[in-house]
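Instructor's aside before we start: the two examples that follow are unrelated to each other. I chose them only because their records fit on one page, so don't look for a connection. First example below.
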Amino acid sequence: MNKAFLVLLFSAFCILNFAFTGCGVYSFSPKGTLDPDIKTVRITPFDNKAPYKNAQLVPNLTERLRQKITRQTKLTQTNSDNANLEISGSITDYSVLTTGVTSANGQSQTSINRLTVTVHIIFNNTLKNDIKEADVSRSFDFPANQSLNQAEAQLLDEIVRNMSDDIFNRIFSDW
């Protein structure tokens, strides 16, 4: 009986010791949290500095980013020059490359094209005079038997959605 009690006591000690000293306490750092002093945001339409210009991309991307920030933060949008956070940027790349080649009857032919879109963003916390810049890039594949105009018509919503998500995450997260 005494031996069984000691084994039980030792087992309880080991379990409690493991439970309380295992890996320590986890906590998330405050990175990615918005400074509570920032109340307003101004988003200026992006410039299009890419050699090839999609006329619908700039207004759609700017508007989608504005909507995303309004829905997912407590920031109020303003056109005033005294916004607490200013976001601007430019589309620096909008280009197509061949990425897939197939061989049929001894002849090589393109099977997949890749549209790459890159946006250079500038975000300025005017309260702290803290300016940060970053490039956000994403690629979108489309069949080689489609022209760029055909692919753009199908991909525009996906491009705008993914790029606005990536820009939002880059600005408001420190991943």
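Example two begins here.
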Amino acid sequence: MRARAQPCLLMLLLWSAACSGLGLNFREPDIQLDHAVLRGVGLTGGNLDLVMKVENPNNFTLQGTKLQLGVDVEGSHLGDITYDNDFTVSENGQTTITLPLTFGWAGVGSAVRAALSYGDLPYKMNGQATLRLPGGVKTVVSFTHEGRAPLIRSGGNVAIPGVGQ
């Protein structure tokens, strides 16, 4: 019986060593806004789909369990999103995640209305992703991005109240 236990113990030790070294080799994924889709607007606000691109620079698959972010447009806070669905990013791969955001005109002012008419969205976002690494290790990765993302209007022309009227 002792002879069988030694190879199992050796395998367990090797597996533990490999997992403990994972933290040293882990590289944070790149999470950024790829583009936004304007689904509709009305007198009180509108609906945007934020299409996020998640790139995994690691040689192992990442399992995401939560994605949270806040989005500002031209200095006005547009909204916060919590995505609680699991997602997977293959090793050295990428995936897209669509996050729906409902926003109101109150509090975001004319700067956001003007930004929505540009054809691209000047944004700043802050967030964090909760990931499960191989071996069951959980980690939280914070991210911040600022830039301009293409803005696509679904369903043809979408009229933005107070813009071009």
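The chain has one domain: 26-153.
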